[in-house]
Amino acid sequence: MKFPETPSLSAFKSDARVLLQDLQNGCPSAFNRAIRAQLISAGPATRAICLRIIAKEYGMKYHKINADDRMISRYADHCFSQGFWKQPYVGEFRRARFLLQFDALVECLRDQVPLAVAANKRGVDFAGFHFSSLLFARISSVLKRKKVPDYSYLQAPGSLIHYDWFYDVKKANHANFSNAKFYTVTVDPVVQPGAYGWGTDFSYADLRGVDLRGAYLRSAYFRGTKMDGADFRNANINDCVFTGASGAFVSGEILHHNWDVGPRGVELWLPDDEE
Fold this sequence. Notes:
The chain is α/β, with parallel strands linked by helices. 34% of the residues lie in helices and 9% in strands. Helix 1 packs across helix 2 (28-36), helix 1 (7-24) packs across helix 3 and helix 5 packs antiparallel against helix 6. It starts with 6 loop residues before the first helix and ends in a 6-residue tail after the last strand.
């Protein structure tokens, strides 16, 4: 079965098309990029070479980027088809909008400006956005040092969020993460639900329908938070504050599950003594 590529991979391929045009037009900076990547050749520039150039700039290999993207897309399809998500992930790539969102992310991570403020300045939000590890690598190629992002008041309903983008985040109060899907990719590799939000402030946020299965949320604050339909199964919610939170959510330990997706498909999870 063929799965659609994520908006993150679409953005990556769009960058490759721009680089190809620049090489074909004899742009000096484009040739310098090819030289630095040691992928310059006597023949004409090709899309395949441009994909490899950008991947190398990110410290990655294109075949790995493509393989991971297929797993993530397959994981999203699996989660919706199995009823783990009430709404499917629906993200789309539009280059003009993406570039504004990217600039907002750079400002947020460089200057520690709340992402909502940086986004509002540019007239965009992050609804349905794919906060991917690939995008994180692109940011890292621009910023050598990144501040911890501030997600307070951020509008990101229905977004797909990789572990890297929430690590050590403390401010997510008044944010809209309704139906957002948090996930991680292990070294195996396997795509599975997860996030790290120790002590994060989600006060007055909209977390209705959010997928935070397997997340580490110890000591997080959910004061006045909308939580109807939120999924906290296998999440660590010890010492959390739920004063004034509204809506029924699910939690508890699930020993046997089929949440994870690897290169060959669904990976069943069993306790160690039953494998």
